[in-house]
Amino acid sequence: MPTTPADPARLLLVRHGETVWHAENRYAGISDVALTDRGARQAAALGEWALRRGADAVACSPLARTRATAQPAADLLGLHLEVVPELREVDFGWGEGRTIAEMAAEDAEAVRRFRADAESGAFPGSEPPSAAAARATAALRALAARHPGGTVLVVAHNTLLRIALCGMLGIPVGRYRLVLPRLDNAAVTEIQVSGEHTALLSLNVPTSPAPSAPPAGTRAAGPGGTPPEDPDPGAPRAPLTGTARETPPAHEPDLGA
Predict the structure, then answer these.
(1) Residue in 180, 235, 181 with CA at minimum distance from that of residue 191
(2) Per-domain residue ranges for the chain?
(3) pLDDT at residue 250, rounded to an integer
(4) Between these two residues, 24 and 256, which has the higher pLDDT value?
């Protein structure tokens, strides 16, 4: 049966694979940082997952970390990788490239305001969530409109996708950190979009295989083989969904990477 413009599209929203700054717990907004070896493995696993799931189009932001994450899926599906500038990550301004601990040491009040409400307390020089939501939701709705009845794999960023989800689901975007504390690397959040209507079908479902579990009573090792620190212990943790995954670093509370 032929599709019509009114048929809903399914968008598979994916955060890119792990980056060097993500491993260091740094806010990587518009900075173009590369995937780690682990991130490359996550991208390969996403490609295999996408091949099993199927998609009619693959899109990503212009930043290298999303291109590298999306390309294996596009190649396996035999699809052109569409680059959408409006899907770039939020510019964190003063917070770009820094950890929460570094920012708190310089201006604890700025960090407190950001944690309380990311819109009214946006970091100095950063893009407000409302502005990011406007461009991201418009881009996602445009992708859905071009593929009525189809499925689009969209690889973008942790903060941008959380803000976009809030905007499309009618949640105040300044509360994105409280409502959606984290999207895992290479995990899939599925939405159904028809015009201005959006339905959340699944959230933060892993595509990577699970690693061997550490011994009971121990913490997973960080990138250097030592237990990671937790520079932002006050941030809420996201509930885990799905099953097997490459376990994210225990210190990752709210990275924009």
Answers:
(1) 180
(2) 9-205
(3) 39
(4) 24
What CATH number has the domain spanning 9-205? 3.40.50.1240
Cα–Cα distance for residue pair 237/234, rounded to 1 Å = 9
Average pLDDT, the chain: 84
Is residue 27 within 8 Å of 36, Cβ to Cβ?
A: no
Separation of alpha carbons 146 and 161, rounded Å? 20
pLDDT higher at 23 or 200: 200
Tell me the backbone φ, ψ of residue 191, rounded to 5 degrees: -125, 155
Residues ≥6 apart with Cβ < 8 Å to 116: none
How far apart, in whole angstroms, are the C-alpha atoms of residue 188 and residue 15? 7
Say how far apart CA 122 and CA 115 lie, in whole Å: 9
What pLDDT digit, counting tens, does each position of 72-87 carry?
999 999 999 999 999 9
CA pair distance 219, 181, nearest whole angstrom: 21
Q: For 243-257, what is the mean pLDDT?
A: 41
